[in-house]
Each structure stands twice: as C-alpha cells, then as structure tokens.
Design brief:
Helices cover 79% and strands 0% of the residues. With 104 residues, it is mostly helical. The protein has one domain: Tetratricopeptide repeat domain (Serine Threonine Protein Phosphatase 5, Tetratricopeptide repeat). α2 runs antiparallel to α3, α3 runs antiparallel to α4 and α4 runs antiparallel to α5. It is globular. This is TPR domain-containing protein. InterPro entries: TPR-like_helical_dom_sf (IPR011990), TPR_rpt (IPR019734). It comes from Clostridium botulinum CFSAN001627. Keywords: TPR repeat.
C-alpha cells in the first residue's frame, strides 16, 4: 500500500484469503486498498465483514472514513457512536470528531 500499488496488493490479499478466509487483518487491508482506489462500496462491504468478526476500533474508524468519503453522514455517525463504545479515547476517533465539528 505504501508504494501505491493498490491493484497488486488487492490481488495478493485475495490470494491470501483464498487460502484462509478468516484472516481479518487481510480483509481489513483489502478494504483499505479498495478505499485508496475510491471504491468505497466495496471497501465498506469488506470492512463490515471484518467488523462482524472482530469489533476493533481500527476497523470501525476505517468504516467511518469510508462512509465520510462516500458522503453517508448518517452511517458515519452511527459508527462514531459504536466506536465511542469500543474506545472513546482512540486518537483517530478524536481526530475524526474534531474534523467533523469544524466542518459541520
């Protein structure tokens, strides 16, 4: 991802998931790569799948960012509320809330 070779990353992450579809980190990373390509609907699909298995703050904030980039403020707010229950002190969550308070 750091080399901005998103398509290649997506290819290899899919290969990894063919071997073991329970790799939540790979599912999360796959979603991030789709989001980097602005394919937010696909990214959200993978993030929701990952979040069903692992209710982590990282996956939740990734979902929030996808919803914000898509312009779906209602879903973004729903997931902000969920994220606050997981870890109200998370730095990324605080940055998102700060950004939204300045721009809304």
């Amino acid at each position: 991802r750091m080399l901005e070779n998103y398509d290649k990353a997506i290819y290899y992450l899919n290969k990894a998931l063919e071997i073991d579809n329970g790799l939540i980190d790979a599912v999360n990373e796959l979603a991030i790569n789709y989001a980097a390509l602005e394919n937010y609907d696909i990214a959200i699909k993978y993030l929701r799948k990952a979040f069903e298995v692992e209710k982590s703050i990282e996956i939740c904030t990734n979902l929030i960012m996808c919803y914000l980039n898509k312009g779906d403020l209602e879903q973004a707010q729903n997931h902000i509320d969920i994220a606050k229950k997981i870890d109200p002190e998370d730095e990324i969550l605080k940055e998102i809330e700060g950004y939204l308070s300045k721009h809304n």
